[in-house]
Amino acid sequence: MAEESETGQLTTTAPATAPATPAVAPPLGPAPAEEVEVDDEAYATDDNSSMDERISSYTASLTLSVVDYPIEYGRRYHGSALGVAYKFPNDEFEMDRLDLAHAMMVKAMGSVLFRAPLQKEKGPSRLETFSKMPRHPPNLKFEIVDIEEPWVGHKEYDFIFCRYMGASIKDWPKLMKNIYDNLAPRGWAEFQEVNTSFYSQDGTYSEETATSKWMTAFMEACSATGRDPSVGPKLEGWVRDAQFK
């Protein structure tokens, strides 16, 4: 289902279709910290047990190369260890901008984090939602991966949330398949993106404004790299093509 607000922002919420299966809560208490060591025997075969060991090691800790962020023109950017094509900085100034963008989207959504019909206080904003569930066992985990590549392991998520990924994804149909394949039966996926075709009701926004010129240059740069920044209007078609219902 897709909805477009008066601000031009579009949200798409799509459920999976298979029968529901019960979820198993993680164990109580924090997991003990362990130092990861390379086990050569884990790479001897490609059976399920050795694959599980590789996945466990892969998600255990970050390597220095992943957080070796380069500084360009006074701004900090993602490193190339994961082949990240994100075009924006990741420094404190950018974090402040993203916090503002988060607040704007929540306001545009009617002061809610999401529209998927989930249990109360179960939502996508990781830290914000986690703080609303103090009685739940520890269940917050961060992993850094390239979501355009095959996802590590096969997990079933009850809720997959994707927001502000325009200009970052090269193959949206492939991403939709990854999401569908890793969604639990009767789980939900929600996408919140924007339409960058800006306009003003009073006509003050025109092609002569600095914002319009910047946006035109930005759109051209993104198109040259094959990453569309204005994906909001296209989401409904993509989720339908991916067999979401």
Automatic annotation (TrEMBL):
The record's listing under Pfam families reads: Methyltransf_23 (PF13489)
Highest lineage ranks of the organism?
Answer: Eukaryota, Fungi, Dikarya, Ascomycota, Pezizomycotina
Question: Region Disordered: what ranges?
Answer: 1-33
Concerning InterPro entries, the annotation shows: SAM-dependent_MTases_sf
Origin organism is: Colletotrichum chlorophyti
Q: Which segments show compositional bias classed as Low complexity?
A: 11-23
Output this protein's name.
Uncharacterized protein
